[in-house]
Design a protein that fits this description.
CATH superfamily of the largest domain: HAD superfamily/HAD-like
Strand order of the largest sheet: 3-2-1-4-5
CATH class of the largest domain: Alpha Beta
CATH topology of the largest domain: Rossmann fold
Order of helices and strands: EHHHHHHEHEHHEHEH
Strand content: 5-15%
Distance between the termini: 13 Å
CATH architecture of the largest domain: 3-Layer(aba) Sandwich
Radius of gyration: 18 Å
């Protein structure tokens, strides 16, 4: 019997497009889009930021030096958060319905700047009971540590949880941990799946 729904955040609840912030950073330095992308995603500091090992300001100083950025921290924060569109993917109606019958948990690989922006701009998060985010846990999915933290917040056994994520590797990791899981493709596909399983 399912007691808790565990949701990934990006591309499940919250839409985003990574290239949006790269375009803004491109205007603030002398590097081209492809070079910025390559340097940023190859940097170990990005993982350190996502797992809370360095602060937002530490990450900004690193990127400013790496890319030669001509912006201050506040401008960087706005650029960094520009990846998000402000309309949620799953409807508030669906999440509210689920919240009446299940405990709801967010399980996300994210950093402090993104998460605080999301909390301030997506009222749908008010229906969730708890949040497990990589920068606070110190690990990213599909590590057992992340799933273990989610199960602890769920207040039930792994087999009593239902998880969805847009990344196949995270779904496989959840199943290895004993969690029921289905890959998220579209809002309609997800809703049809939980109806098929008689969870809605």
């Amino acid at each position: 019997m399912i007691k808790t729904f565990i949701f990934d955040l990006g591309k499940v609840i919250v839409p985003f497009e990574l290239d949006n912030n790269i375009k803004i950073l491109e205007a603030a330095c002398d590097l081209k889009h492809a070079d910025i992308r390559e340097k940023m995603f190859a940097a170990q500091e990005l993982i350190l930021f996502e797992t809370g090992k360095i602060t937002a300001r530490d990450f900004f100083v690193f990127l400013k030096n790496l890319l030669g950025l001509r912006i201050n921290f506040e401008e960087f924060a706005r650029a960094w958060n520009s990846i998000f569109s402000l309309e949620s993917i799953l409807s508030e109606d669906l999440i509210e319905k689920l919240s009446k019958n299940y405990r709801l948990i967010i399980l996300s690989d994210t950093n402090e700047l993104h998460f605080e922006f999301i909390r301030q701009n997506f009222p749908i998060l008010r229906f969730f009971d708890d949040f497990v985010v990589s920068y606070k846990v110190g690990f990213i999915k599909p590590s057992h540590e992340m799933f273990e933290a989610a199960i602890e917040k769920a207040n039930c056994a792994a087999e009593e949880c239902f998880f969805t994520d847009d990344r196949k590797g995270n779904i496989e990791g959840a199943k290895e941990y004993g969690i029921n899981a289905v890959q998220f493709v579209t809002a309609r596909q997800f809703e049809e799946e939980i109806k098929r399983l008689k969870l809605l």
